[in-house]
Amino acid sequence: MISTENKYTTLRTAKARALVRASAKSVAACKTGKTPKGNVIEIARAAGILAAKKTSELIPYCHNIAMDHVSVDISCKDNTIEITSNATAIAKTGVEMEALTSASVAALTVYDMLKPIDKNIVISEIKLLEKFGGKSDFAHQDAKGLKAAVIVASDSRFDGKNKDATGPIIQTWLKDMGFKSGPVTITPDDKNKIRDALMKYCNDGCDFIVTTGGTGLSPRDVTTEATQSFIEKEVMGIAEAMRSYGQRRTPFAMHSRGVAGIKGKTLIVNLPGSPKAVKESLDAITPGILHAFEMMRGKGH
Fold it and tell me: Could you list the active site residues?
């Protein structure tokens, strides 16, 4: 199975369709419910709903998803029985296979129930009609033309005692997102030094400043205080999203005091100081963070 541990939970929906071709007599029997095996539409609908919930037991690489809603609509016209399955879940991975499996099993049920009176039934199409909820659905914004900067707050890294591993991680992420990123600035754990670095990048016209380090409970951790004294508006949801994402992976994420906020036309986000926490925090805000820049420029939601 493909790992979903670094994905975040979103509302996922999918719609799939299956077409069953049969004689006009069989389709009419399906409509009336008078067949040797009973009411075709109701049994096929129940089978489709059950199949959506059992998809991971039928398709080896599908994840086990708790479905929030499944509906199966069946319509009969001329020589065609059309089955449309809708699947909904709040999950880490999509539900297109649940919708497709639902439509497929419902179609097979129709076939099974009509075969005593029709030997020429054909399941002619099983097709995904639409799906929504993955990262690609929220990634219509991009960072093209946006300038970013990275600040590492750490006494040991500033003094050269420890090599910094977090700055390069953030720079790679910024590049992948489409930002234009300059060199990494390393400062000591000093409130004024951190403020000076924030001011420099704001004055340089940076759209996005990412800091790492100094968000914990150590007496020397002052990045949060430096940022709070500098920003004009706090964007609490960004920090909450990172902590929530991290807390589902380690109980220590609750100790992060990082904040996010706006200074003029610059968005500033504090990340923790460990490479693992940095990666997780960046996963948590991708790609939703890009929408902030559209709102900051008055484009709305």
Answer: 112
